[in-house]
C-alpha cells in the first residue's frame, strides 16, 4: 500500500514543513493554520527520484531521456496530479524551450531528480512554463 503523506510551505519561515510538524504545531495551538500555511497541502506521489528523494506535488524535477540515436536530453518539469489521478510532469526541454513536454511520472521514475519546488525555487518554476 502506498504511503499517504503531505507537506506544506511555511510562509513565515520560508521553508517546507513536514505534515507531522504542521499537525503537532496546530494541535498544540501554536499557529494560526490558514495564515501560516498554504490551504492546499502538497501530496507525496509515492514515488522517489533516482537519488531516493520523495517526490511531491509541486516539485520541480529534471528528467533524462535518451533519443533513438543515443543522445541524452533533459527536461525541467513541474510535478502535478492529472484529473484521472495519474502523477504527471510538464515543462520544457533544456536544449529547446520552443515546445512543451508532458510526461507520466511513474514510467520515468528512474530518470528523474528533484531539483526544487514551486515555492522555494520560483526561478525553476518559470522555466517549466
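^ C-alpha cells above, recovered residues below v
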Amino acid at each position: 500500500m502506498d504511503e499517504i503523506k503531505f507537506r506544506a510551505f511555511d510562509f513565515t519561515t520560508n521553508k517546507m514543513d513536514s505534515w507531522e510538524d504542521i499537525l503537532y504545531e496546530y494541535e498544540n495551538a501554536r499557529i494560526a493554520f490558514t495564515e501560516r500555511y498554504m490551504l492546499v497541502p502538497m501530496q507525496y506521489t509515492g514515488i522517489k527520484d533516482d537519488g531516493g528523494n520523495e517526490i511531491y506535488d509541486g516539485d520541480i524535477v529534471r528528467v533524462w531521456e535518451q533519443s533513438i540515436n543515443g543522445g541524452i536530453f533533459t527536461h525541467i518539469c513541474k510535478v502535478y496530479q492529472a484529473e484521472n489521478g495519474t502523477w504527471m510532469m510538464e515543462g520544457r526541454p533544456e536544449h529547446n524551450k520552443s515546445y512543451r513536454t508532458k510526461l507520466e511520472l511513474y514510467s520515468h521514475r528512474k530518470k528523474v531528480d528533484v531539483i526544487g519546488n514551486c515555492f522555494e525555487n520560483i526561478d525553476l518554476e518559470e522555466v517549466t512554463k
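The chain has a mean pLDDT of 82.
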